[in-house]
């Protein structure tokens, strides 16, 4: 029996315990299309969002939210929210562009075949000061925004409100998925689904429920998040996005 991907749209916002706007990113449970998501809303005018790959003390990838939490605590920073930054290669190496603290640690990946990452159009999520964007890979190369932080992944979920041309409502690939969008008001929103969802419905969630015209898929079945009280990680990661206070 084929399961329809797009269900009647419903909304439910429930703040997670211990998280509030005063502490940093607002982390909420949100339902859209009949599926529950964890959504972190980041206001770059107030919140500190950063990307991390290797622990400067050991030179090794952080691997876990807990290791990153401990490192940040040494710097006087409390972790409010974290999620994995995107698809990575063996050896816990980000598969595409990775910019950290204004330094390009890995260049743009121009692959046009080989898994979700290369399902063009793919793109880059970038942060520069109080601005953020989700930009198609070739357009990013032309724009050259010199960001403070950036990660490349794929496929793009949305570009200017348009759903990726390869997605369809009856798509049969259902997985837990994570992504990031930049919304009409400039807010950054990370979302991790609580259950399996196809690409089309995930894109619709960002567009119609979260109000983000531009959004990028980050990763699939192993995607997870951490807050001050919760940690859903069960596999090692390469890059990690973190909101701190």
UniProtKB/TrEMBL annotation:
The keyword rRNA processing appears for this protein: no
Keywords: Glycosidase, Hydrolase, Signal
Signal peptide location: 1-22
InterPro entries: NAGPA
The keyword Signal appears for this protein: yes
GO molecular function: hydrolase activity, acting on glycosyl bonds
Domain called Phosphodiester glycosidase: residue spans: 79-224
A family per Pfam: NAGPA
UniProt protein name: Phosphodiester glycosidase family protein
Lineage: Bacteria, Thermotogati, Deinococcota, Deinococci, Deinococcales
